[in-house]
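Researcher: Quick one. two chains, 751 residues in total.
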Amino acid sequence: MTNTNLPQCWQDYNDVLSAGIDRVILYGPPGTGKTYAGLNSGVSDTGAWRLVCTEDMTNFDVTGGFLPDRDGSFKWNDGAAVKAWRGDGITGGRLVVDEIDKAGGDVFATLLAMTDTVASAKWENPASGRIETPRDGFTVIMTTNIENMEELPVALKDRFPCAIRINEPHPAALDSLDMNIREYARKMADAGDRRISLRQFYAYSKLRVIHGDERAANLIFGDRAESFLDAVKVDTVPSSTI
Amino acid sequence: MSNLKTEYAQDLRPLPELIRRKDGANDEPAEWTIDPCPAERGIPRTAVLLKHMVAPVQNFELDRVIRAHEMMHAKVSPGDRTPWHDRGVASERALVSAEECRVNFLVEKAGFDIDVLEDGTEMNAGERIAERGDWAEAVYFMACVSGTGGVNKYLTGIRRHKPGWGPRLRRIHQLLQKELRRIWKQEGAVSLTSTRTSTGLDPANELIEGFYHTEAIAEYLDRLAEPKHSEDKSDDDEDDSDPEGTEGEDGEASTEGGAGSSRTGSSDDKPPISKADLEKERPTTTEEAGAWAQLNVKEQNLTRHVPGGLGKKRVASNMGRNPRRMSRLLTDPQRRIFDRKIKGDGGVVLIDYSGSMSLDTSEVLEIMDAAPGCTVACYSTNDFDRDGKPNLWVLGARGRMTTAIPRSRIGNGVDHPALVWAIQQKQRRHAPVVWVTDGGVVGPGQGYRQQLAMQCIKTCLKSKVLIRNSTEDAVELLHDLAMRRPVKQWWPSYFRTTWRDVTGGELTA
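Model:
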């Protein structure tokens, strides 16, 4: 798919990455492929590491920590951020941070340090005393479902100058759906409280093959099944043979 | 025992987010606001551009069909009707009624049972309209309920006060359905529902293809609603048998009407349109529809002073400074020996400067000389002129005229917008508007279209525009106006033919 065929949000994403922007926030409704794009799109051979932030997570996931070894000693295990910094030893990797707004205070502070500019970022490994810095090519993609970027802390926004709202699924993610429901899946991805997720459409697409439209809609969309089927009836009226 | 199961309310709000359109109005994924309302006529509505729908959400079949109706509006109706209204082909009320008719037809085609589409107010509406004797509203309302389960109740209401209107309105309902079926079969379902526009980028200002059908039906309804020029008074009015064999319903209703009717069979029950006239009228088809270019007005340098004014004259007066009519001292009992000037009404002269008129500069100047004190303009174009290129030039205004006559751009393109502009330039209410044209009105890059011609004819009739097709006739007319002689309307053969084809009647002088 050429860049010009892509929806605007995905074009924007490709453009900022190809221009060398290495800190990007992707935000918007869930189920549009933000994390998938972070892990796969524009990633070098070095690879990508993912962090899913929760209130209970610790810095172990970010920078690393000691784990008991077989011989009764403790061995240091690197966290996702340090692995991404290091990459393949020559080129830095991609760090994908999901739901950073859900991280607790200390983890958040560590993440700020780990996502700082290359010149400022520095971290000392407590096990080896080695000073780690991000290798060239290290990039960070942060994803969140927050709609209002003002809700993000100033320090975080400062580190991520580019924020792109992803309001529709990537066309590649729609390819596995039946042709006649792809557009519906695209349009319902950003319908606020009334949205129907891409995953529901995947399930509907599979079920209808075996059980037919009505049964599949009832199973997947529940009380909204009638509204969904009526909308499809109205939408397809020009091709109706009635 | 918990009764949570039974209390659990279904979310039956429609999903207009799913609707696909070609004009870009619902292209971006976005949430619609759905407000519930009772299932009553006039309350549910849909605003495509604002993504707002008001629809009943209860679990009844009527509610479901109303939801489908509103969804169909979201599917096929224009985001903004203003550009259609501005075209002036049909009235706003007619556009609304015709669109209801088209949408109901499409809802049925989508597989919904629109026989249930009645809210019980149709009979009252029919009674109220008939009691007022409002034929126009009777026609428009007929279009609104056409095809739904409310038709018979509406006609029953009508017959309570105007028994004679029933068969004619039923026939209008049948003709509307017949026309929609014709479009569906001959021009295709896609044509009737299309929201395609020229660019697909500006849903607020671009015209969608499918609504051309609505506009054509609306214009037809306007003609039926105000059959002013019905010359051909038919003598077969007595025979109101239904041509499509639905007499049973009429018969049944007349019994019902008899029970409640206060004036059955009275002479003013006669519908304003005769049966023969109704059968002669027909909607224009989309091949006959067209569009005008954008009007771009340029005022030439008005360097030449032209004394006088159309219709300006001196009359005798009994007061003044210079006695000019001394003989009246003896002959006039009121001794009106002075002069008093009566201002002329002014006037507007619009010249069709297209190639078919073959006017040269000297002929334009000759017309201008015969129209002192008038606003004179000529128009011609050859494309849509979206770039602002002038296509109407003001050659004279406020007692001054130009000597620089522009070159013709061969095509017409803006006949009706220019005509409307000319009417707006009238200095006084009774100022005459003279249109020098051969009647070959065409949009840019199009052939002669009856819809566009009808638009011009209706505007001429409404504003009493005087038409002439040659320089000599125009000059003669202007001289007659200057002398305040009575003048007659004249119609070019294009207009006469179009009027005959569309209405079945004759344009008279």
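The CA atoms of residues 189 and 197 of chain A lie 6 Å apart.
Researcher: Thanks, that's what I needed.
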